[in-house]
Amino acid sequence: MAWFAAFPYVLIFGILCSTFVSAFVWKHHNNDELLEVLEDVHSRCPNNTRIYTLSETSVRGIPLYVMEFATRPGHHQPLVPEFKYIANMHGNEVLGRELLLGLVDHLCSKYLENDPQIRLLLHTTRIHILPSMNPDGWQTATDAGGKDYLIGRKNNHSVDLNRNFPDLDRIMFTYEKTGYGQNNHLLPELDRLSQPIEPETRAVMRLIMQVPFVLSANLHGGDLVANYPYDESRSGIPSSEYSGTPDDDTFRDLALTYATLHADMASPNRKGCNPPDASPDTKTDPYNFGVQGGITNGAQWYSLEGGMQDFNYLSSNDFELTLELGCNKYPDESRLVVEWERNRDALIGFIWKVHSGIMGMIRDPEGRGISGAVIRVRNITDTWRHTDIQHDVTSVHAGDYYRLLTAGTYEIIVHKEGFMPQTKRVRVRNQPYKTATRADFTLRPLVFPKPEDDYFGSMAKNVIPDKRGRWKRDENASKEKN
């Protein structure tokens, strides 16, 4: 009876204890504690999250854990775009790792608090978060005290993972010069590798190939800037050459989104980052990317081959940025919560950009989804200049497609072998907290005449397809004389 009377106090105490135990702590989480954070988030948001591992472990055998947020975890849903964050690709660049752990905790907590923007984001987006792509390098850097600019950068085979992806840029640049070849999904065009692919790289490549990502970012450290493709120069020179993609306007817009939402990435008045070998007596100020809006084209900064950013763009439908989050690669624990406040709005705001541009369904006349249809875009915003964007995307599993674009007016051409193409004019507005502009297409199959039909032979030149793709005689054609 006494226990029953005290029950309300026991219940309140239990709730308080539960809240205390699950409270996120800003610290450098080791590889075991990283999983514990993900498991805690999943226990609090079991219906909206899933923990999974990539297909391969690190060299030392540490699983590469991913936290997924979705209304149906484990399943792609039509018209729900896919987004990913990857951090700690360089093991000694650890801020992104802790920020992503803080982000998964924040998303779950705000969802449970019925935050309207977070609930809408999680109901309309499938989000994948890989806090550490290089846990071996993290361990090496941590064991060395976290102070060295290079120790722990590479994986346990001493390979820089951000130079280890297949170099598809060279294929793309060759096709640009010759005017021959496709402008997207170039991995099947690769005939040889310049180096062995590391297990961590292979695991992420499989993820990219299996999940139809629309937008992503990989988080680094060492400077403060949002970097966009291409990372590799067309000429091969090591720096100072602007190497833009056909989607340069869109990539600049994406980069500016993160930079302007960050506390001071875009500030022209902040200090730049000193290079690691700079003398304490140097008289020149380090360069501040804030004077150019906090963004940079990768190759104009410095050119690199085999980067993950360009691989995403050229092997899939995914648009990816590289986010350099600060001068200090391994900040003190006391700085982590400060960096979270500086990056929180940018991290969330960048996810929302997955809903810019257009999306829709591509079906046949029977309502069946058509996967693998090609979506080609022409920018007709300026009446005096129409520009073909020479980078196509394709529809995915159920016939759904997603195409990131800046605000403007576009002509969308959808085609697939065996079907009549269809064209629509679409106006893109990109309103905050709204899903992308919807544009659906119905492709009618081409119906070819049978050899025994009378259309062949002397009447063949007067046969044309009708609006439904069926072949018929052209009644307006001149009749042949008997």
Summary of the model, kept short:
Helices cover 28% and strands 21% of the residues. The chain has helices at residues 2-5, 7-22, 31-44, 95-112, 116-124, 135-143, 169-178, 199-210, 248-261, 298-301, 308-315, 336-352, and strands at 49-53, 65-69, 82-87, 126-130, 213-220, 223-228, 295-297, 319-326, 358-363, 374-382, 385-394, 400-403, 408-415, 422-428, 437-438, 441-442, 463-465, 471-473.
Q: Beta fraction of the residues?
A: 15-25%
Distance between the termini: 111 Å
Shape from CA axes? globular
List the uncertain runs: 1-21, 455-460
Q: Which structural class do you get from the secondary structure elements?
A: alpha/beta
- Please compute the radius of gyration using only Cα atoms: 26 Å
Q: What's the number of helices?
A: 12
Mean pLDDT metric: 90
Biggest sheet: strands side by side, in what order?
Answer: 1-2-4-3-5-8-6-7
**Major β-sheet profile:** 8 strands, mixed
Strand runs, count: 18
Query: What is the helix/strand order?
Result: HHHEEEHHEHHHEEHEHHEHEEEEEEEEEE
Query: How helix-rich are the residues, as a percent range?
Result: 25-40%
